[in-house]
Amino acid sequence: MILINDDIEADKISLDSGFFFGRGVFETVLIKEKPIFIKEHIKRLNTGLNTLGVNKIITEEEIYTAIAKLKCRNCVLKIMVSEKNTIFTTRENSYKHSDYEKGFSLGLSDVRRNAYSNLTYVKSFNYVENIIEHEKIIAKGYNEALFLNTDGLISEGAVSNIFFIKNKVIFTPKVKCGLLPGVVRDFVIKNSSSIGVKCQEGEFTYDELLEADDVFITNSIMGIMKVSKVDNVAFKESLVVSKIKRYYDRYIEKNEK
């Protein structure tokens, strides 16, 4: 279903700089009985609008009103905002139980993230590079594309943030490495100590990733997904990944009602 500028029957958008130049932002929110991490998504969305110079603020009330109109439960809500348009769409969650059992495989993209561009840090309508690279890597038999930045350091996935484990410590690239600061990424960083594990942000090479004990990726819809393989290097799920995933899943169950 789709809601365009408060009208569930609308079939037209207003042409603006979001359409002509990609000046707009979006968020993808997991909805259970209620939206998960809604405050964090709203904050990132409004920060992105400010960065792009769009004079608009989205409120929590607007989102709950849209959810009610769309009768959105146990689904995925996408929010798209530009100068003249606020659009809400819903879809099913495509991640399956078998995905978590098997784990995802990552393939290295030839594209490099530009850590010096403000747009790198905004979830904007200019997302086609992510989509293209994601499609390319899937065509090669992988589940997700992995980007390095222009300095050759690990950055992020096409639709995910990346973590790796070495000697029972969780490592993840700093935001300044050229990545979108994910909502679940932030959750892992803030809550790793709750399972007795340290999480360190830093600058890491691709070789350091391949030498890790284990790897996992995150986004707001998949949550926490173990990685079974990076290119041709296989990984086995460690106790640390199991513990942080259980902690996350329990948190979601506790806060979904």
Write the layout of secondary structure elements.
Elements lengths: L1 E3 L12 H5 L2 E8 L6 H15 L7 H11 L4 E8 L3 E6 L5 H6 L1 E10 L14 H12 L4 E6 L4 E4 L3 E6 L2 E5 L9 H9 L7 E4 L3 H5 L3 E6 L3 E8 L2 E2 L4 H17 L2
Parallel strand pairs: 5-6, 5-12, 9-10
Antiparallel strand pairs: 1-4, 2-3, 3-4, 6-7, 8-9, 8-11, 11-12, 12-13
Describe the structure.
This protein has 257 residues and is an alpha+beta fold. It folds into two domains: 90 residues, 2-Layer Sandwich (D-amino Acid Aminotransferase, Chain A, domain 1), CATH 3.30.470; 159 residues, D-amino Acid Aminotransferase, subunit A, domain 2 (D-amino Acid Aminotransferase, Chain A, domain 2, Alpha-Beta Barrel), CATH 3.20.10.10. It contains eight helices and 13 strands. Strands 5, 6, 7, 8, 9, 10, 11, 12 and 13 form a nine-stranded mixed β-sheet that branches. The protein has a four-stranded antiparallel β-sheet with strand order 1-4-3-2. The longest helix is centred in the C-terminal third of the chain and has 17 residues.
Question: Tags for this entry?
Answer:
D-amino Acid Aminotransferase, Chain A, domain 1; 8 helices; 257 residues
Low-pLDDT residue intervals, each spanning 5 or more residues: none
Number of domains: 2
Strand content: 25-35%
Order of helices and strands: EHEHHEEHEHEEEEHEHEEEH
What would the principal axes of the Cα set say about the shape? globular
Rg over alpha carbons: 18 Å
Structural class, from helix and strand content? alpha+beta
Q: Please, what is the average pLDDT?
A: 96
What is the first-to-last residue Cα distance?
23 Å
Number of strands: 13
**Mind telling me which CATH architecture of the largest domain this is?**
Alpha-Beta Barrel
CATH homologous superfamily of the largest domain, by name?
D-amino Acid Aminotransferase, subunit A, domain 2
CATH fold descriptor of the largest domain: D-amino Acid Aminotransferase, Chain A, domain 2
CATH top level assignment of the largest domain: Alpha Beta
